[in-house]
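re: ur question from earlier - yeah i can do the single chain one, its not a big deal. heres the input i used so u can compare w yours
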Amino acid sequence: MTNISMSPFTNEIEWIDPPRGFTMPHFIPYKGDEDPDQHLKYYRSTMILYRNNDAFMCKIFATTLQGNVQDWFHTLPPQSIRSFNELSFVFTKKYSFNHSIKMTSDHLFSIVKDLWETIRNYVKRFKVEKAKIVGCNEDIAMAAFRNGLPTEHPLFEKLIMGEELILTASYVLAEKHALWDEAKQSNKNESEKKHIERSPTREDSALETFTKFTVPIGQILRKLKNEPWFELPPPMKGDLTRLDHTKYCVFYQDQATLSTDA
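and the output i got, formated as tokens:
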């Protein structure tokens, strides 16, 4: 009797017995970090067979509270709760800071396809955001879906110039364009791969490419040899007996050259 007198429920609620054949459902406990309205909707749908038994609805609801929320429940004034409506009111008031922001259909106009985003991913993001809106207006959603596309994309043109489509039909059309975009990208990647395979490497180009001078090399050397940054090359290598020792090479500073320009 002491426990009953300290309970937030009236005696009528505390003394209620479960209906015959009642089996306690498995509830997801409420810990105070979610929308209280969502928890109430979840609870009512789980207890739909007993919603006409107001006292029983109160008593079972208390078992769905956990942790700090259960502690809060026991701080309510003794015998202050006389109905499920009163319990719902104090519960939602206490945890109102967790109320979800109700989004309207206009929220979908903020969903815009990024420059490098695929059509498939854009549609996926749009669907996720639309699912968050209760009672979403289909006409507004259709306009927002079209608005989020780049104006130069072929899908945008079809949605503007073609016959009016419902949103689900637009999703189907977008899927076809996604397949088309992916096929084009695949062909582009394959072409680039073949081009790279056919292109000469840098080493090959270095072997075949030579600098052409319009001025004799000896004249260029005379202008550069006294510059502080100019460095002479290392001595020539190879079979020196095959070189022309009657000529002097200024570039190599040696009595060995095959070039008359040096």
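Residues 105-198 form a domain with the Non-ribosomal Peptide Synthetase Peptidyl Carrier Protein; Chain A fold (CATH 1.10.1200). not sure if urs matches, ping me
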